[in-house]
Each structure stands twice: as C-alpha cells, then as structure tokens.
Amino acid sequence: MHRRTFTLGLLAASLLGSLWGLPAQAERLASIKQAGLIKIAIPADFPPFGSTGPDMKPQGYDIDTAELIGRELKVKVELVPVSSANRIAYLTTGKADLLISSLGKNPEREKVINFSVAYAPFFNGVFGPKDLTLDKPEGLAGKTVGVTRGSIEDLELSKVIPVSANLKRFEDNNATIAAYLAGQVQVVATGNVVATTINAQSKRPRRLEQKFLIKNSPCFVGVNKDDPQLLEQVNQIINKARKDGELNRISLKWLKTPLASSLL
Amino acid sequence: MNDFTLGDILHALLGGLQWTAILSLTAFVLGSCGGLIILALRLAHRPVLVWLAKTFIEVFQGTPLLMQLFIVFFGLSLGGVEIPPWLAAALGLTLYTSAYLAEIWRGCVNAIPNAQWEGSAALALNRYQQMRHVILPQALRMAIAPTVGFLVQVVKGTSVASIIGFVELTKTGGMLANATFEPFLIYGLVAAGYFLLCYPLSLYSRHLERTLHVAR
Amino acid sequence: MSYQFDFLAVARETPELAAGLARTVELTAVACVAGLLIGIIGAACRAWQIRPFNTLFAVYVEMFRNTPFLVQLFFLFFGLPTIGIEIAPDSAAMLAMVINLGAYAVEIIRSGIEATPKGQIEAAQALALKRWQIFLHVVLRPALLRVWPAMTSQVVIVMLGSAVCAQISTEELSYAASLIQSRNFRAFETYFVTAGLYLALALLLRQTLLRGGGRLLKRGRP
Predict the structure, then answer these.
(1) Of B108, B105, B71, nearest to B88 (Cα)?
(2) What is the DSSP letter of A50?
(3) Phi, psi (deg, nearest 5) at residue A127
(4) Where are the domains of chain A?
(5) Rounded to an integer, what distance in angstroms lies between the CA atom of residue C197 and that of residue C159?
(6) CA of B139 to nearest chain C CA: how many angstroms apart?
(7) Is some CB atom of chain A closer than 8 A to the CB atom of B1?
(8) C-alpha C16: how far from its chain's center?
C-alpha cells in the first residue's frame, strides 16, 4: 500500500517536473533547423517597422528582416505579432524564438535577454502639433504625454519628465498614435521614422512635428539567454546583410533613406 | 498603404466577425460541458466536491476575464505548454463560461419545488434517477432563456481576447482604425457587428422567457 | 534553467498596485451611484411609457447591452473626438462605465417596478398620498429592495469589466499590473497577484452592497 502511494507520488512528481521544470531547449537552433520553422515576434502596430497592409498581412522593416533571417537559416518563418508591452514575455516564455520588433537596448532588458548586433537605426523623441513650442523635457510640465507602455521612450521619459506632466501609457503604439490624433494627449513620445510614416499616411490635420529627441536607440534582435548558438548565427547573418547591401535595400524600402552609416 | 476602400474595410471586418462567432461558439459549447461538470460537483453530496465547485465559481465570477486570459496565456507557457492566442482565448473563455453557466443552472435546479424531490424519493428513485427523470427535465426548461441570454455575454466577452492578440472583430477594428485613421467609422462598424450578433439572441432569450413562463 | 517564481518582484510594487486599486474603487463608486440614478429615471420612463423618453431609453438599453464594453470604450475615446466631440481623456472610462451600468440598471429596476402589486398603488391613492410619495415609498423603494441582489451582481460585473480600461490608459488596477509586468518581466506572477486583488475586491464589494444597500433601503420604512 505504502509502496503504491510512493510510486504514485513519484509519478506525480515527475509529471509535475516535466511540466514546471522543463529543461530549456539547449539546442534551440538545432530544433529550429529540424522543424524547418522559426517563430519570430514582430510588431503589427509600428509603421514602418511593422504594420498591417490592405491584405491584413504584416509588412515593414522588421518583417523583411525576419524573412531575411529565415532565408539565411533556410527555414520557414512564422510571424508572431506582439505589442510593445508584452513582447519580452513572448520571448522569455518561449512563444517566439526571436524578437525582431524594433527593440531598443537598456540595462533592465539586458538582465533578462540577450541582444544581437544592431539591425536598424532608431531615434525616439517627443512630437506634437506645429504651434506648440517645446524643446526640452522640462517643457512637458503640465502637459499630457502619450507613450507606449514598456517602450524605450516610456522608460527614458519616466526618468526625466517633470512631476506635473501627465504621462499616459497605452498598451500598443496604435493606441498611442490614435490617442494623439484624436487629441486625447497633447504630445507623444515615439520614433522619428514612425512619426514620418504616420504624417505621410494620415490625412488628418493634426501632424506629428518633432519637438526634441530623447535617445539614439538602434534596434536589436532579442534572443533568449540560453540560446548562445542562435545569437551567434543571427549576428553573422546581420553582419553579412550590413555588408552585402541587403539591409540597405530594406532601409531604402521602408525608411526611404540609405542605411545609416553607424550600421555600415 | 493608406488605400483602404470601404469594400476592403467591410471585407476585413467580416473576417473578424467570423472569428468572433467561432470563438463564441467554441466557448459556449465547451463551456456548457464544463458547466455541467461543475454543476454535478456543486450538487454532489460530498462536501469536498461542493467546496471545489464553489471555489471554482467564486474565482471565475470574481476576477476579470482579462486577468483570466492573461494567466492562462502566460501561465501555461511557463509550464512548458505552448499555446497560441486563439487557444488561450478559447480555454479562458470556456472556464469563464463554465462558471457562469453552472451558477445559472444551479439556480434553476434550486427553483424546483422541494415536493418534487420528496415525491420522487417516495417513488424510491435514487439521486441520479431523481435528477435524470424528475428534476433536470424541469430545470432545463427554465434554464433555456437565461442560457441564451448568457450567450450574449459570451459573444461580448470574446472582445477581450483581442487584448491577448487574438485577431477577432475588435482587434481587426483596431488594426483598421490605425491604418485608415478613421476610428469613428471603424469602431461604429465594429459595434454594429456585435449588435447584429447579440441583439437577435437577446430578443430570442426574452421571447423564450415569456412563452416558457406562460406555459408553466 | 527551469522557471523560478518570483512573487517578491510583485510585492516590491505594492504602491503601484494600491494606487491602481484606489482608482478602480473610485471608478466603481461613481459608476454605481450615477448608473443607479440613470436606472431609476430610465426605469420610471419605461414602466409608465412616458413619451418620447421610453423609446429613447429602450434604444439606449439595447445599444449598450448588445455591444462589448471594450468597443464602447474605444468608440468614446478614439472615435468621438475625431468628429469633433471632445471627451476629457480621464473621464472617458468613467463615462463608459456609467453608461454601461445605467443600461443594465434600467432593465433591472424596471422589472422591479413592474412587479409592484396594483393593489398597493390603489391603497396608497386611497390614503391620499401625493404622486411623488407613492412613487418613492410604494413603488421605488420596494422595487429596489426586490432587485437589489441583481443590481449588486451587475455592479460587480461592471467593476470586473473595468479591467479593460487600461487599454485607454486609465490608471486602474490592471493598468498597474501591465505597467509592473513591463518593468519586471514577471507577467504570470503579476497577473496572478492582481487577479487575487480583484477577487478580494469583488467579494468585499458584494458584501458591502448587499448589507449596506439592504439596510439603507429598509431604513425608516413606513
């Protein structure tokens, strides 16, 4: 009787163990190659890096980069749309193998995941209507500022913003931009290329004029801590693409400028 | 990029509506099965089972659907079980639906007069037989109207799945609103889409309530 | 490397959670009072078919009961301002909750009013009570008492539904949770703790409303 309980307990423990103590896939690269499929998290709300086209499919700089990496690894790519706030959780919980979603680097994030070499330039800043004079963070006092939760802008701005400013955080970039265009916030913090793209697309009278830049924060591919092999492979692919003009082609297509010299 | 015609918009929204309907039906069908199980536990004569059912109902009726979806979505993947947003949404909504339906149905079973239990007991029926032949047929009749009424809540609840990234009607609307810069039009259409699904159900539920009450 | 739970990472953010909780309570309180008022007015118009308000209230009730709260929120926050109807960003969530609860309250209270026995009104008329006295004491108060449990459930449902208000940057409890998890990357632990807080709030709210509401409605009854 006791023995049976013991066996049952052992069985339960090993079952639980297999559920909760799942050993990380040490050979994720191998398993990706074997499956012939890599899951890459991309933004769906961040033009020109990732947005929805009229065919309801994702398109943009990050999507082209993801396809490039898939091509070089000779595997199919499954695009997983994510938002700024939850994208790191997608990577750490294994819902995606790679994170290519205009991700900036900071010490907090470096504790949790690894970063590749940079694959895209990115400046973030504060944008507002034309008639508003504003050239430094102190000028934000008393204003409502829209920002996407969990983005580099959010983290950086939170440090320097005056206490009297009302920082309103939105779940995704879509909502942040929509709130600005609807006049629900006075200014927004976002990427310079994002602002340019929205200005080009939107016919609304409310424009996004650059007020000041917050940070030069190029984009990196996020890789899980326990996948050093995958990281190395991704770095090789990006370095090659920087040299052979592939990234330049993507830059011309989506950012309308040649690849920034800092990335060459 | 900004060349969405009204046709494109309606086409995309219809696609979203379809997923809303599929998710609603899945949650409703599976939730009905779950609800029956919880109901059985709740009506059992074992205190442990009753406690289990009560706790389940309390937890799922006492926490936001959004939190339930987040926990299912992020929790299961921590346990090494990989699930896509649609499955997390279906699972979360099923649990939520089970809790509410179990409680609605228990109300109906409780509404059966005690005399029915006593009468059937006098006929030497055991508890299962009492349930099967006397109580449930009557309770079922009473349960139809509120159950259809709850289906409306399920349909509306599916909109929360958009937040964990399931592309149904609300999510499609959000994507379109940002690509077209016409949030007034788009969210108006999205609301109309839900109304088209829900209003007939509401009317039907009310109709059932009237006719079944008269017949009783 | 198996996953190590770290609930301490959430405990460190107690001030954020407390602030969010306070905002959720505030939103719920306002929605409860204002929604109840809308419910009483609407139910009276519907029950006695006061034109044209009975039709207007009927349309209002059906519109808001048959569309998701989240979509109503988006429509108010993103949609209306683009056609020139400005809604202060901080009040959009509150407005949506009031309107939403109001729609349910109209139907709930109406069912209570319609269950008033005819004889009671006739008796009150025989006692030469004024119309407003009859409405207040003979119709409304017993009606509210009758439907109070249903009303309480609906308030709890609306409170739980307010979790989606974070989508329009309302700084309530789920907003605090999302903010915390985007900082500590502990999604599961954060949402788990937050769900627990919601559960506690729901239980407390239900008890308070059932006890307090019942006592208030019964007090000084003739």
Answers:
(1) B71
(2) B
(3) -125, 145
(4) 26-122+219-263, 123-216
(5) 12
(6) 20
(7) yes
(8) 23
Quote the domain boundaries for residue C127: 13-218
pLDDT digit string, tens, across residues B102-124 = 999 999 999 888 899 899 999 99
Give the residue among A189, A185, B65, B164 at the shortest CA–CA distance from C78: A185
Long-range pairs of C55-64 with CB within 8 A, sequence gap ≥ 24: C57/C106, C60/C102, C60/C103, C60/C106, C61/C103, C61/C106, C61/C107, C62/B199, C62/B202, C63/B195, C63/C103, C64/C99, C64/C100, C64/C102, C64/C103
Spatial separation of the C-alpha atoms in residues C15 and C12, rounded to whole Å = 8
Q: Which residues of A touch C78 (CB under 8 A)?
A: 175, 178-179, 182, 184
pLDDT at A238: 95
Q: How many C-beta atoms surround the C-beta of residue A174 within 10 A? A: 24
Task: Return the residue of A nearest to C186 by Cα.
Answer: A89
Check residue B58 and give its pLDDT.
96
User: CA-CA distance, A81 to B25, in Å (whole number)?
Assistant: 25
A-contacting chains (≥3 CB pairs under 8 Å): B, C
In chain A, what is the straight-line distance between the N-terminal and C-terminal CA atoms, in Å?
A: 71
Tell which phi-psi region holds residue A147, choosing left (phi > 0), alpha (psi between -120 and 50) or beta: beta
Tally of structural domains, chain C: 1
Nearest to B194 by CA among C104, C73, C64: C64
Q: Which residues of A touch B2 (CB under 8 A)?
A: 201-203
Contacts (Cβ under 8 Å, ≥6 apart) of B162: B168, B169, B170, B171, B174, C70
At C185, the amino acid letter reads F
The CA distance from B17 to the nearest CA of chain C, in Å, is 13
Q: CB–CB of B174 and C74 under 8 A?
A: yes
pLDDT at B140: 87
Residue ranges per structural domain of chain B? 6-215
Helix axes B47-62, B6-43, angle to 10 degrees: 150
Pick the more confident residue, A132 or A7. A132
Question: Which residues 6+ apart lie within 8 Å of C115 measured at CB?
Answer: C143, C146
pLDDT of residue A204: 81
Superfamily of domain B6-215: MetI-like (1.10.3720.10)
Q: Residue B181's pLDDT is what? A: 86
Cβ–Cβ below 8 Å for C185 and A21: no
Q: List the end-to-end C-alpha distance of chain C, in Å, as a whole number.
A: 70
**Is C97 a residue whose pLDDT tops 50?**
yes
Q: What is the token pair recorded at B12?
A: 């995309």
Interface contacts A/B by beta carbons within 8 Å: 65
Cis before C52? omega within 30: yes
Give pLDDT tens digits for B37-81.
Answer: 999 999 988 999 999 999 999 999 999 999 999 999 888 877 777
Whether residue C188 lies within 8 A of chain B, CB to CB, comes out as: yes
Q: Please, which residues have CB within 8 angstroms of residue C159's CB and are 6 or more apart in sequence?
A: C24, C27, C28, C31, C201, C202, C205
The rounded percent of chain B whose pLDDT value lies above 90 is 66
Phi, psi values for residue A227, rounded to 5° = -120, 55
Q: What is the CATH number of domain A123-216?
A: 3.40.190.10
Q: Supply the CATH number for residue C192's domain.
A: 1.10.3720.10
For residue A248, what are the CA distances in angstroms to A40, A71, A119, A191, A261? 21, 17, 10, 19, 10
Residue in B with minimal Cα distance to C200: B62
Q: From CA C86, how far away is CA C94, in angstroms rounded?
A: 15
- Our CA angle for C1, C6, C8, nearest 5°, is 155
Cis status of the peptide bond prior to A48, with omega within 30 of 0: yes
Q: How many CB atoms lie within 10 A of CB B137?
A: 11
Check A92 against C166: CB less than 8 A apart: no
The domain over range A26-122+219-263 is classified in CATH as 2.60.40.10: no
